[in-house]
Amino acid sequence: MQREDVLEHALHVLEREGIASTTLEMVAHEADYPVQEVKQFWPDSEALLYDALRYLSQQVDAWRRQLMLNEELSLEQKLLKRYQALTECVSNQRYPGCLFIAACTFYPDASHPIHQLADQQKKAAWEYTHELLTQLEVDDPTMVAHQMELVLEGCLSKLLVKRSQADIDTARRLAEDILRFAQCRQGGALT
């Protein structure tokens, strides 16, 4: 078994059990891999969490890059594609919530490497949104990016608790409204 396979299983356990409850033993059991061999890669749960979040970060970054390069999608579709991805997760009985938000909560010290990694991912998400909004030439893309990311983070946080597709649908509609409102403001319709 490869490290990436164990990390993929670790992400499933983290989503299901949460950061505070996940142990090396749980991940080894989920991966059907001897715990002693898992400990050769990661001496403790914190080391495994760091690598799992780094691995997830790389997956998310690659997904965003693919979206940015996808010429078949409009800028608006690229902005809202994250909600479709969340819907696909829920349909597969996966409830990702936001492991990055949870990591910042569990490791509140801003100098902790796990907190820094999570914060870096949040900044990358904001930059992705800001870049697309700038390309759309909306009025005040900085403020609109903050609004859209706040809605997404609220949705992700609720997924950690409620695990409801309805929350994803509501957040998507709210994000669409924010985007439409910003485009109307940019066009002078609201002045």
From TrEMBL:
The question of whether Transcription regulation is a record keyword is answered with yes
Q: Which UniProt keywords apply?
A: Transcription, Transcription regulation
**Carries keyword Transport?**
no
Instruction: Spell out the InterPro entries in the cross-references.
Output: Homeodomain-like_sf (IPR009057), Tet_transcr_reg_TetR-rel_C_sf (IPR036271)
Could you tell me which NCBIfam families the record lists for this protein?
PRK11640.1, TF_DicD_YjdC
From the Swiss-Prot or TrEMBL record, give the protein name: Transcriptional regulator
Give the species: Dryocola boscaweniae
Lineage of producing organism: Bacteria, Pseudomonadati, Pseudomonadota, Gammaproteobacteria, Enterobacterales
